[in-house]
Amino acid sequence: MTQTARHGTDTVGALLHRWRLRRGLTQMDLALRAEVSTRHVSFVETGRSSPTAPMIVTLCEALEVPLRERNTLLLAGGFAPAYREHGLADPPMAAVCDAIAHILKFHEPYPALVVDRGWDLVDANGALTPLLAGVADPSLLEPPVNVLRLSLHPDGLAPRIENLAQWRAHLLRRLGQEIEASADTGLERLRAELRGYPCPGGAGTAAGNGGADAGGAEDGIIVPLRLRTDVGVLSLLSVTTVFGTPLDVTVSELAIESFYPADAETARVFTG
């Protein structure tokens, strides 16, 4: 059977082939993961066989394709999307929003925020606001607030980050990992923008190229955010939380960033 279903200019076979190469897998590797024959994988990729919707989902799961892109593959195969995409204000998202509000509230007095796939701010608790004082460009705080742009822009938080080179390299490496996982062209454009920002301290534009930390490693085992404030330098560790087994595109792309004191003085400031 000849495969004719397309999404844009890409067949489902071409898209699967691209994702397989992106994951660094051979056809045999993918076949073993998906528990199908190598011959079937080959036929799907070349268009000699048209995969069913369940087979597309199986191959996507084996390739760890994000939910949004799984829908793209299903559409390319001539099928309806399998994963819904609700807005946070939609009734089915009430439980998710309640969980987010609970996490943010009970993380106080420490700061926590929620970002979407593009690193735009979705929500935050009250402890975050004092950390944003002194941002020189008010437009950086206008919705949608991009957290990475706000952090690394020379008129944002960057002048107040004591270990800017190290923190910048950390953020760009993480962004690079997300680009590799999602193939998101919007994130690629954001990375290019961030790399163009000046970085006093010697990181230049090399940080975030996927290599060593251009900012240099410290003795600790986790990179802290060291932020100058009116009450002194706060040292914060970040922890990322995502929803397990999401079946909604929006939920799959949310991340909660929670900050914790990295030293006793920072803890005293927040709890004092």
UniProtKB/TrEMBL annotation:
Highest rank taxon of the organism: Bacteria
Pfam family, one: HTH_31
Positions of the HTH cro/C1-type domain: 16-70
InterPro entries: Cro/C1-type_HTH (IPR001387), Lambda_DNA-bd_dom_sf (IPR010982), MLTR_LBD (IPR041413)
Name under which the protein is recorded: Helix-turn-helix transcriptional regulator
The species this protein was found in: Tomitella cavernea
Organism lineage string: Bacteria, Bacillati, Actinomycetota, Actinomycetes, Mycobacteriales
